[in-house]
Amino acid sequence: MYRYDETDHTLIRERVAQFRDQTKRYLSGALNEEQFLPLRLQNGLYIQRLAPMLRIAVPYGLLSSAQLRRLAEITRKYDKGYAHFTTRQNVQLNWPQLEDVPDILADLAEVEMHAVQTSGNCIRNTTTDQFAGVAQDELVDPRPYCELIRQWSTFHPEFAFLPRKFKIAVCGASNDRAAIRAHDIGVQIVKNAQGELGFQIFAGGGLGRTPVIGVVIREFLAEQDLLSYLDAIVRVYNQLGRRDNKYKARIKILIKAMGAEAFAERVEEAWQQSKNNADKLTDDAIAWAKGFFSQCNYRSFDNTHTEALLQKQAGESKAFARWLARNSFPHRVAGYRAVTLSTKPTGVPPGDVTDHQLEAIAELADRYSFGEARVTHEQNIVLADVEQEKLFEFWQDARKHGFATPNIGTLTDMICCPGGDYCSLANAKSIPVAEAIQRKFDDLDYLYDLGDLDLNISGCMNACGHHHLGHIGILGVDKRGEEFYQLQLGGSGSEQASLAKVLGPSFSREEVPGVVAKLLDVFVERRLPDELFIDTYHRIGAQPFKERVYAKPS
């Protein structure tokens, strides 16, 4: 993973000192709320329903065991003993005291972490596939390019106050596990007909009040031109994006108004006017970034022996077999697998982990996975380099700490924002809905029979729970001062990206689990052999689901 040099350390130390002074002046009354607002936002600090919320950056989801242990210490000392993993692969603290935030940032800086640009109208944390660098379907590891984007975008003087927040995702695999088409900019690593490495560029994606799937604005961009072309996109957006209405300020609105072709032409013009040899990524710069993500010191194995051992262990333990099938992922190196630690046992808010669990993840990472872990945009944790011979031992250790729920990819592996329990923007609570669904669908055999199924819950239109991308999406809405929930169907963040469509009138919280059950009944009755929910929906359409859900009792 990337390691700070002295310039990085100095920059972050100076930022911490600067924010300490700004906070002191705010608390003394020398700065008013309006003056302090942009300062705290660009240091990741929100004021939520009950307390401040601090969002900590986790670049492309990668954490060292030392960073995990420091997060555990911080949650214990400054919060209520737990943290929350977000869909942007970041970490949130929900209960810090405002006067403690500078101390938290100073503690984070000691382990090469910060909260810079995790909020505000700037370029946010760049995200990627949680299996980056180990996936078998990967063209190349996308993380070096994420790091180059991070360094280009951090404290970029021209992009500190964009019309609205701006999000970038990079994918290096044939299967899109980073939802790049739902981002302001999506970067897909490709090769052209000559075998040259480069990028297909999407722009104008995003969720929230006006969900949009991004469009291709350049089919092939040479590797050396990545940063100069991204710079041109953001510059055009910064110049032309609306600032009079925050609901119409995102780049997706600009591209829709201009048309994708006209926007692409404007970017091309800006790029051609500004680019020169100095703007290009050099071979040395690319090699430097790649050097931080070099291959681990993998061992060689007799793969026949390790596979036979796994089959034997799975045959002797049904629980292990379930976990192995659901929570492990094929690795490009023989004898290894990537493993997902589920943060979603029944009764736990999705994405929440305690201070002791953070320390347990660090211990597991040190023992089994070269001291590194990854936050996923599904709010789980991945240890990417576990030896197959140690998987049974790993599973036993993970069970002790509540991480071995074998539900990855199933209905109960849901994405869920904190909702009205914490967020001041939420129209409704999300966590109680998630728990009610978990409790109703607690039969693993039934979940496995359903197959892969994405269920996403958001407490408001801001879509932090990505409900637009759920095969089943649930949105909290305010209805005459009461909390109700709108059901949506057919969303996907994959390479066949689609936006979920509203099914019909909303339901009370108590009704939601039963409505989900009716949707699943239709799927089970109408699906073809081995067909997934999303495929059945696209084949038969919404009407059969709507008829079942809204049928009047006889």
Q: Give me the CATH architecture of the largest domain, please.
A: 2-Layer Sandwich
End-to-end Cα distance: 61 Å
Helix content: 25-40%
Q: Main beta sheet: strand number and arrangement?
A: 6 strands, mixed
The shape, in one word, is globular
Beta-strand level of the residues, as a percent range? 15-25%
Structural class: alpha+beta
- What is the subunit organization of this protein? single chain
Number of strands: 21
What's the pLDDT, averaged over the residues? 96
- Total of domains: 4
Q: Which fold does the CATH topology of the largest domain refer to? A: Sulfite Reductase Hemoprotein, domain 1
Please give the radius of gyration in angstroms: 23 Å
Which parts are unreliable, with pLDDT below 50 for 5 consecutive residues or more? none
**The level-1 CATH class of the largest domain:** Alpha Beta
Count, helices: 18
Give short descriptive properties of this protein.
554 residues; Sulfite Reductase Hemoprotein, domain 1; Sulfite Reductase Hemoprotein, domain 2; 6-stranded mixed beta sheet; 21 strands
